[in-house]
Amino acid sequence: MDTKGKASGKKINWLHLLGFMFGVMVIGSLAGIANAGNITTWYATLEKPPFNPPNSLFGPVWTVLYALMGVGIYLVWKSPDSPQRKKAIQVFIVQLVLNFCWSFIFFYFHLIGWAAIEIVLLLGMIIWMILIFRRVDKLAAYLQLPYLLWVSFATLLNVSIWWLNR
């Protein structure tokens, strides 16, 4: 975004931008809130690898990632109508649903192995989303790179926890 309130050469509608950011953060927060009780109970009893971050790190990281996702989908949504834009929005929705479901598979149902399979699917959808976003709005794609890196790390963490607790 430049100093004149433009992103990717287009004027920013701040209300829409905040709406997209808020909407994505609400969806992510709902999964987190619904499963919070299992973090201090069931999750605390699992054996974890030495690189497992403190629980206090997850909330702030996910807040930033959901905000970046919101900005990214806003930029795509603001782009001219095209088949690529439509596909980018569809892929975004699918990856967001997978993101939402992972928390329930892992924390609510305690299906660590199934969660590992699901997060690999999510990782693939994130890569696809970035590739499709790039065709529509490069900034939207680049804003998803921290999400890709974090979910790559989360995939390693999920698989490691499954391995240690199988």
TrEMBL record:
Its main location: membrane. Belongs to the TspO/BZRP family. The keyword Transmembrane applies. This is Tryptophan-rich sensory protein. It is found in: Membrane. GO terms for cellular component: membrane. The keyword Acetylation does not apply. CDD domains: TSPO_MBR. The chain crosses the membrane at residues 12-37, 57-77, 89-109, 115-133, 145-164. One of its GO terms (biological process) is tetrapyrrole metabolic process. Coiled coil: none annotated. Pfam families: TspO_MBR. It is a multi-pass membrane protein. Keywords: Membrane, Transmembrane, Transmembrane helix. It comes from Echinicola vietnamensis (strain DSM 17526 / LMG 23754 / KMM 6221).
